[in-house]
Specification:
The protein is α+β, with helices and mostly antiparallel strands. About 50% of the residues lie in helices and about 15% in strands. The protein contains 32 helices and 26 strands. The strands form four sheets. Strands 10, 11, 14, 15, 16, 17, 18, 19 and 20 form a nine-stranded mixed sheet that branches. The protein binds adenosine-5'-diphosphate (ADP) and magnesium ion. Adenosine-5'-diphosphate binds near residues 336, 431, 432 and 433.
Length: about 900
């Protein structure tokens, strides 16, 4: 292979033939897989570098911006000054440990998100080894032949070889929002042409908005125009509402800690206590109040949640959405493919007053003409380049080709006889498409589309004897009857031309058509939808269907899956919607559950009206025009299989299986994760509250320092941290989907949380004080160790109890969260090591406990667990 210049600027001046020769590729065959492998080695992957936002340094700096860390640093300095070197060192070590853990956890979370985003990278359709294939666009090499269709993001810089009405939105590259009409001819080499004028090129990152084309890959990865600009993806704020609330809480806590420590210190010194002793106490208080493990654990719980959602076929592209999902109050869903199987089958074809039903092998002569139209005005293509095999493309069109095959009409042979010379592509707002074919004499235009779209263009009925006048109303009625049975109905029509109509006059080709027939297709609902819709309703989530399909079809399917329960339910059509003003829509939006014949552009109005009503909206979409609504919705949901790249880029979540039930599963998962985060927050803060009570009450009761700062740090970090991470594995509460959604701005600290934290903290503190008093009267040198051990043990019983907010531990079962059980066992072992290993005794200033002393700690912790279970039991009773 000769050297291909991937840096040349002048592809647009060169002829296609010369370029394909230079790239040694036959456009109808593509590269061979061996050649692809060789070129990948040579030119690398088609990836843009440096796409994830935060640098490692920024991440590290973030860890030290935390006010809690600053207070800890202050505590270390004071400890050092008053001469407690071990404590000072311990605090410094702990600061670096927490920051280190925080750093690696954030890095891991960032990596996980980057990996998720990478999974969402677009695919490209190429021809290689003579076969059309779908590959990850990262794998493109120079010389590949890429197929573009409306909705595709251009995967590399392409020199266009052949195209049909291709229009490209280049705003990502040039900032110009008007779409550009492309061509394939070489441009004169005379003048300098800016990117926007290179009409025979399609650049990476731009979007094909209309038509189709194929082109030669001339530059990949960082050599592409967009790679040169090295524009970074827009970086959105990486912290979630919950994390923001936590940050705010951290600031307030810092102030509280400073005030209370200073007050305590001042009061003690004023009373004449030794200054050193009071300084140490103030530091201990500060350390006790700060939940050191909290930020890292929350990040990890969110990131693990996002990863878990991939297993459920929901790919989360932005971390905050894990939380938002849990608060969704209404899901607006497409019908075709999301609620239904998108496995279309032709059910019947009505033509010339006779209905052909699926299964009949011989159609009448009029049916024959309709089938011809159905396969010719059709973009389905055969997988193996026409050599037999399955059909690819829009499921509606594939169904038409397959049904026609059954009655002996083959798309390939029809197309050989009447080759396509021009087309007016389908789009969801026109709801029809037309293709022009060269016939033996003159040309024939075939149109297919929604009956309301096609019938008004028809003036005649086509018969073998010639054209006869048609009765539009009668046909429209027939179409509505078919739709009411849940069928998708398409009308077919044709018009014979002597010469090619003006390609810029869509109207001319789509006027005075002769009607051929009506085709009814069925697309059964997915089996799991009815249950998923029921789940939504019991979880306080409304389900709305928005479709481009006929109102009768939409209603029939909505009834079948349980979105509406009444055959007379109101269906709002796009036409009616267009007539409503903002206020009018606002009045209806809470009642209407089915929207039919809606333009994608109207979806954004529905989103906005729902949001104005206070809803948190999840909206699905797959087309280019869906992008604004996806962006506007609180949770934009794109289709991973069927959708366009544009929709996927605009959405926050990509459904890998295009299934409505997956959205519901993701919502359930979001609720579970947020629930577990709240449990962890409660757990950590209650522990802190216990430590604070202990430290505040001890001097008042004339008891010596019950704990050293190093003990407190150990409890807050290891004892809270390990089980906290394991809470990520806690299964959802049995009633997660039986409760109404939480408001997204609802405080972190739900009602009743503070009293619980204070009272249970007092209980823990009281237990510790009692044990301390007992130890002081028997073996005073063991008292700190006993309190330290009891603190750890009681955290362990507490975390087991807090696993569920209402169910008792017996109901949950000890083994239903094995990671947590493991974390508890490991923590208990570590505690034993701190007590019984002599080397650790001196570092942690502990002493080996006797069996009696250890049993007292175990007993007290179990008693605490029992009391907490009783509290849960009482709460259960009350509900
Ligand atoms: P949805 O996916 O929400 O059901 P679409 O916007 O895809 O709606 O389609 C709207 C209408 O356009 C359909 O009800 C059908 O009548 C018509 N239609 C859909 N696909 C095609 C196609 N490939 N060719 C012609 N008409 C189509
Ligand atoms: Mg569709």
């Amino acid at each position: 292979m000769g050297v291909i210049s991937t840096d040349s600027q002048n592809w647009h001046h060169r002829e296609v033939d010369a370029l394909t020769k230079e790239h040694q590729v036959d456009p109808s065959y593509g590269l061979s897989h061996l050649e692809v492998a060789a070129r990948r080695l040579r030119y690398g992957t088609n990836a843009l570098e440096n796409r994830t936002g935060r640098t490692k340094l920024a991440l590290l700096a973030d860890q030290f911006k935390n006010p809690m860390v600053i207070i800890l640093l202050g505590a270390a300095i004071i400890s050092g000054v008053i001469g407690d070197a071990i404590d000072a060192l311990a605090i410094v070590v702990i600061i670096f440990l927490t920051s280190g853990i925080g750093f690696f956890q954030s890095l891991r979370a960032d990596r996980a998100m980057a990996a998720l985003q990478a999974m969402a990278t677009p695919q490209a359709t190429v021809i290689r080894d003579g076969q059309i294939q779908l590959i990850a666009s990262d794998c493109l090499v120079p010389g590949d032949i890429v197929y573009l269709e409306a909705g595709n993001q251009v995967p590399a810089d392409l020199r266009l070889i052949e195209l049909s009405q291709l229009r490209v939105d280049e705003s990502a590259l040039t900032g110009e929002s008007v779409t550009v009409c492309k061509q394939s001819a070489a441009l004169p080499a005379s003048a300098y042409s800016p990117l926007g004028d290179r009409l025979n090129m399609a650049f990476r990152g731009t979007i094909a908005s209309h038509g189709r084309a194929h082109g030669l890959v001339v530059a990949i990865g960082m050599s592409t125009e967009i790679g040169k600009i090295a524009r970074l993806l827009d970086q959105n704020d990486p912290s979630t509402p919950l994390q923001k609330q936590l940050a705010l809480f951290g600031k307030r806590l810092a102030i509280f800690v400073i005030v209370i420590s200073a007050a305590f210190f001042g009061a003690g010194v004023w009373r004449g206590e030794p200054v050193m002793q009071m300084a140490l106490l103030a530091i201990s208080l500060a350390v006790a109040a700060i939940p050191e493990a909290l930020p890292a654990v929350v990040t990890v719980l969110l990131a693990l949640g996002a990863r878990h959602m991939v297993g459920l076929h929901a790919l989360v592209r932005r971390l905050p959405l894990v939380e938002t999902l849990g608060s969704v109050t209404v899901i607006c869903s497409d019908k075709t493919g999301t609620l239904t199987q998108n496995c279309m089958q032709v059910e019947c074809l009505a033509a010339g007053g006779r209905v052909w039903e699926s299964g009949e092998s011989v159609p009448g002569p009029l049916h024959h003409a309709a089938w011809q139209a159905a396969v010719l005005c059709n973009d389905a293509r055969q997988a193996n380049g026409g050599l037999g095999g399955g059909w690819l493309g829009d499921p509606t069109e594939v169904a038409l080709v397959e049904a026609a095959n059954f009655v002996g009409i083959n798309k390939n042979s029809e197309q050989l006889r009447w080759p396509r010379v021009q087309e007016y592509p389908f789009d969801s707002s026109r709801r029809r498409m037309t293709t022009l074919h060269k016939a033996e004499v003159g040309f024939i235009a075939f149109t297919k589309g929604a009956p309301e779209s096609v019938l008004p263009c028809c003036q005649f009925k086509w018969t073998t004897e010639g054209l006869i006048p048609l009765d539009q109303d009668e046909l429209m009625q027939q179409a509505t009857m078919m739709a009411a049975q849940g069928m998708r109905v398409l009308a077919l029509a044709r018009r014979d031309h002597l010469a090619i109509p003006d390609p810029n006059q869509t109207l001319e080709a789509e006027q005075q058509l002769a009607f051929l027939g009506l085709i009814g297709l069925i697309d059964p609902p997915r089996v799991e939808i009815a249950a998923a819709v029921r789940d939504c309703l019991s979880a306080g989530i409304a389900v709305i269907m928005i479709t481009g399909d006929h109102p009768a079809t939409a209603l029939a399917i909505a009834l079948r899956v349980g979105i509406v329960s009444d055959a007379e339910a109101k269906v709002l059509t796009g036409q009616e919607l267009a007539l409503l003003d903002k206020g009018g829509l606002l009045e209806q939006v809470d009642q209407v559950k089915v929207y039919a014949r809606v333009d994608p552009a109207q979806k954004i109005r529905i989103v906005e009206a729902l949001q104005a009503r206070g809803h948190v909206v999840a909206m699905t979409g797959d087309g280019i025009n869906d992008a604004p609504a996806l962006q506007r919705a609180d949770v934009g949901v794109a289709m991973g299989k069927g959708g366009t790249d544009v929709a996927r880029q605009a959405a926050g979540i990509v459904l890998l299986d295009d299934n409505f039930a997956t959205i519901v599963a993701a919502i359930r998962e979001g609720r579970r994760i947020v629930g577990n985060i709240r449990k962890f927050i409660r757990y950590a803060l209650t522990g802190n509250s216990g430590e604070m009570w202990l430290l505040l009450l001890a001097p008042m009761l004339m008891l010596p320092m019950p704990l050293l700062p190093i003990h407190i740090l150990w409890v807050n970090l290891v004892t809270d941290g390990l089980p906290g991470l394991a809470l990520a594995a806690e299964p959802a509460e049995r009633n997660v989907m039986l409760q109404p959604p939480r408001a997204p701005d609802e405080s972190l600290f739900s009602i009743g949380m503070w009293p619980h934290i204070l009272v249970v903290g007092l209980l823990i503190g009281g237990l510790c004080l009692t044990v301390q008093a007992w130890a002081l009267s028997t073996t005073p040198e063991h008292s700190q160790t006993m309190v330290f051990t009891l603190m750890t043990f009681s955290q362990m019983t507490y975390v087991m109890v807090i696993r569920s907010e209402s169910q008792s531990l017996w109901r949950l079962g000890l083994y239903s969260n094995l990671p947590l059980l493991g974390a508890v066992v490991v923590t208990l072992f570590l505690q034993m090591a701190l007590i019984y290993i002599p080397a650790l005794n001196s570092v942690f200033q502990t002493a080996p406990l006797s069996l009696v002393e250890l049993s007292i700690c175990v007993g007290a912790a179990l008693a605490l667990g029992l009391l907490l279970e009783i509290e849960k039991g009482l709460l259960r009773r009350k509900i």
